Amino acid sequence: MSELFRVWVYLAEQPLLWLTVTVLAYWAAHRLYLAAGEFPLLNPVLVAVAALVALLLSTGTRYQTYFDGAQFVHFLLGPATVALAVPLYRQAHHLRRLWLPLGLALLAGSATAVGSALAIGWLLGLPPAMLVSLLPKSVTTPIAMGIAEQVGGLPSLTAVLVILTGITGAVIGVPLLRALGERDPATKGFAVGVAAHGIGTARAFQHSEAAGAFAGLGMGLNGALTALLVPLAVWLFGL
Amino acid sequence: MIGALAALLVLQLIGEVLTRVLGLPVPGPVLGMALLFAALLVRGSAPKPLAEASRGLLAHLSLLFIPAGVGIVTHLEAVGAVWLPLLVTLLASTALAMVVTCFTLRALQRLTGRSTGT
């Protein structure tokens, strides 16, 4: 038993263990999601994160120790963001025709994402640090963390709020817009991408190639715009 | 495949360097995405290995968000005190943003007479 314990103590400090556990947790969560008929609340990211948090707490492992292993997966966010150019390019012919509707819809959606979070959060009495951390929630993780840092929020809290926003968009996005009478996959995709970044985009790709591409487009454009809007909102509001 | 992966990394690197040097408010990978998009437009087609590499990376995009998500473990106390208003704000604001984007895009497609055509 003490031999096992020694092996555990050794492994618990190794990047290999937490990298493996992260991939396994996602794999298992994804299997569960498929087995449950893609039940939205069993979103693989949500289930895997919850399981990993429970595991870290029960084994007394520090997040830093965990991240030393998981960072290899985390790092791939960069190349994956660059890779989004490929599905975008396949939809480029739409961009040439639709730059005006897409641009104005982006502006409206982006301003709503930041402005409504500020207004509702302030009305509900959220402390300033929480409020500021919430503002970049509709943007992909690496961008949102950068913005949060810039305006005095908590980047790692922002990362989690970004994930929750993404899951929200992935879960309610398409059904909500369908219920409101939207038939066009590309229009729904763009709206989900603007409001719910990469996780919304991943879900939109399962819906259709066009929805996914427009979602990626909305996500990319909104990343750049929100980086300008959040500091402006913070300055206007005097946070 | 390895060439495609190298290309993605090089573009991310160029993006990171440019945002640092020029002090741009956009993150490096997003600039890298813009550069690759421009390069594909100029080239007029996406090379097959690049298309495959990007499909491979994007097929399990969800996995890549997990390490950052587990970061909530460091904020459990702070979030515990205000989790309800935080969650209500997040849900309402996200739903509003989607509806506003969708309706604006729908209305402008009607106005300009140009639709996504999907």
From TrEMBL, chain A:
Q: Where on the tree of life does the source sit, at the highest rank?
A: Bacteria
Q: What is its main location?
A: membrane
GO cellular component terms? membrane
Q: Check the record and name the Pfam families matching this protein.
A: LrgB (PF04172)
Which species does the entry assign this protein to? Sediminicurvatus halobius
Key word Transmembrane helix present:
yes
Q: What is this protein called?
A: LrgB family protein
* Membrane topology, from the record: Multi-pass membrane protein
Q: Can you tell me where the transmembrane regions are? A: 16-34, 41-60, 72-89, 98-124, 157-177, 211-237
Q: Where in the cell is it found?
A: Membrane
User: Is Transmembrane a UniProt keyword of this protein?
Assistant: yes
Keywords from the named record: Membrane, Transmembrane, Transmembrane helix
TrEMBL record, chain B:
Full protein name: CidA/LrgA family protein
Keywords attached to this entry = Cell membrane, Membrane, Transmembrane, Transmembrane helix
Output the Gene Ontology cellular-component terms: plasma membrane
InterPro entries linked: LrgA/CidA (IPR005538)
Q: Where are the transmembrane segments?
A: 29-46, 58-76, 82-105
Domain of life, per UniProt, equals Bacteria
Short name of one Pfam family: LrgA
Give the source lineage, highest ranks first.
Answer: Bacteria, Pseudomonadati, Pseudomonadota, Gammaproteobacteria, Chromatiales
Query: What topology does it adopt in the membrane?
Result: Multi-pass membrane protein
